[in-house]
Amino acid sequence: MLLQNKGLFILIFKKILFVVILITSLEIVCFLILLVLSPVKDSYSLIDPSNIPNYEESVVEGKLQLAGRGYSNDIVILGDSSALMNIIPEVIKKESGFSAVNLGTIATLTTIGHIKILDYYLNNSPAPKVVVYHFSANSFQMDTRTSTYTKNIDNYIMMHSKNRFILHPSRDVKLYFISLINFLFLDNHANLKVKRGKYGSHLEILKSVNDNAGYLEEFETKDWHLQASQKLDFEYNTNLIDEFDKLKALSNKYGFKIVLMFTPLAAHYNIATNVSNLLKIESELQKRALSWDFILYPVIRFYENSYGTKNHNHLTHEGAIKNSKELAALLNRTKKH
User: Fold this and answer.
1) What is the rounded CA–CA span in Å between residue 161 and residue 235?
2) Which residue has the higher pLDDT, 13 or 209?
3) Cβ(79)–Cβ(323) under 8 Å?
4) What secondary structure letter does DSSP report for 176?
5) CA distance linking residue 30 with residue 4, whole number of Å
6) Quick one: DSSP state of residue 226?
7) d(CA 259, CA 331)
8) How confident is the model at residue 215 (pLDDT cuts 50, 70, 90)?
9) pLDDT tens for residues 155-184?
10) pLDDT (tens digit per residue) in 178-213
């Protein structure tokens, strides 16, 4: 009787072990299928999959994808949305022969977040010849304590590191099961396909950013100057300007040159108060020139009103072409030095 019970126990144990091995094998197979068939799983490294991503999240993720590709570029464009919408890599290539990628994002990241993205790029790609930091005063106004984007960038980078399971195992398991549920129930990541006005869905922004080497066009151009106040807010946090020291440290490590480029403004804003504030920003930046070398493009540049848009830091597509040509001309001059 004892032998029969022992035999029955062994049989039950073998069946349980078989079921466990079968389920584990199926999970591994499902995981491998997800890696191949779930191209937008990447998004959940940055955003909450239960919500519709906002425009800023889409832009930041698109740039992190570009930064992690491992492609070689002569020029890397960095900065806030003035870089995102005012520099066209295709024009840089045509006018100077330099290949370029635009990693410009949003002012909310501040210089801290912008430099994090550059550092991520440099860990995945050969160092460029030149890094262009294209910015507006907004990049120096933000309070980094209220910005969750820089923390989300850290999460994304950890999720794409070689030691991802060691550094952040609980988050990775969570993302795996979210993707598995989406895959099994054919949800196909519906939140990422929801239209959000002029810029479209999350996936559409990712495609646009990737197709245009990081450039995204501003569309709010109609009759903007009729409602816009001429006086702009130029308050800034000098601690964020001090972050340029980290940019210099990366320059020393990787050997690239630095160009600082303030975004052009429409002629509508060419008034004494704005010019005075622009000169203050230029003075703060020039202090850095005493301690380390970089090229500071003239801060004060005004374009025709026809190149302006609803956002004073963004140019029309035609304005972005003009701005990109001016940058290309500057890069051409650097070839001789």
Assistant:
1) 37
2) 209
3) no
4) H
5) 39
6) G
7) 9
8) very high
9) 777 766 655 544 455 555 655 565 555 555
10) 555 555 554 557 788 888 887 789 888 988 888 888
Residue 236's Cα: distance from chain center in Å? 22
What torsion, rounded to 10 degrees, do the Cα atoms 11, 12, 16, 19 define? 60
Token representation of residue 116: 């994090």
From the CA atom positions of the chain, what is the Rg in Å?
25
Q: Check if the beta carbon of residue 293 is closer than 8 Å to that of residue 328.
A: no
The SS3 call for residue 324 is helix
- Taking the C-alpha atoms of residue 76 and residue 63, their distance in angstroms, rounded to an integer, is 12
> For the chain, what percent of residues have pLDDT higher than 90?
32
pTM of the model: 0.80
Answer yes or no: are the C-beta atoms of 214 and 64 closer than 8 Å.
Answer: no
Distance, CA of 180 to CA of 174 (rounded, Å) = 10
The enclosing H or E element of 134 equals strand 130-135
Question: Both tokens of residue 308?
Answer: 């302006």
Query: Cα 175 vs. chain centroid, distance in angstroms?
Result: 21
Strand partners, 81: none
Average pLDDT, the chain: 80
* Of 53, 104, 7, residue with least CA distance to 314: 104
Amino acid letter for position 318: E
Residue 333: CB atoms within 10 A of its CB come to 11
| Across 226-246, average pLDDT | 75
- β-pair partners for 75: 100, 130
HSE-up of residue 57 (Cα within 13 Å, Cβ side): 22
Angle ∠(288,292,293) on CA atoms, nearest 5: 105
DSSP 8-state code for residue 20: H
